[in-house]
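Hi C.,

You asked whether I'd gotten around to modeling the 173-residue construct. I have! Everything is below, sequence then structure, no commentary in between.
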Amino acid sequence: MTPRRRYAAGWAALLVAALLCSLGAWSYHQAREDRSLSYAKARDAALAEGRRHLTTLNTLDGTDGTRVDAGLRGWLDASTGALHDELKRTAKADARTLTTAGDTARGKVTAAALTALDERTGTAELIATVDVEVTPRTGAAGTQRKRFGAALARTGDGWKVKALTAIGPGGGR
């Protein structure tokens, strides 16, 4: 191969390498700026936090006053808006009632899905099925299956439940 051809082949290889690097950088930029990726991340965050907060709102250890107070604080941490205000307003009465009853409930979200997500307003709608294992102070334990519709709001601390509605067996509220 002549020096001239070697020189041309070197430049051609350099040009191909630069083209591939440019294509890779452009592809990376497109992926980082992709709105669907941003939407998917917001959806996953809202769903995960919604599931976690529904578990919290269906769990409470009523065996003593300290545990009841901790459970009620957890409920307040999981909620926002009107639901938070209602839970805060009824906290003292709820603590007395729950401590007296002494029952323990442990919720587990078995299925959940977002039915709506508006990133601009920071709101989402969630539906979920929750199995709640209830252990009364006296008597046998049992599991209840519940279905909920939850309105979520994005706060400075992440997504929280702002409204919670039980869904009946026929799908009605």
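If it helps when you're writing up: The mean pLDDT is 91.

Thanks,
B.
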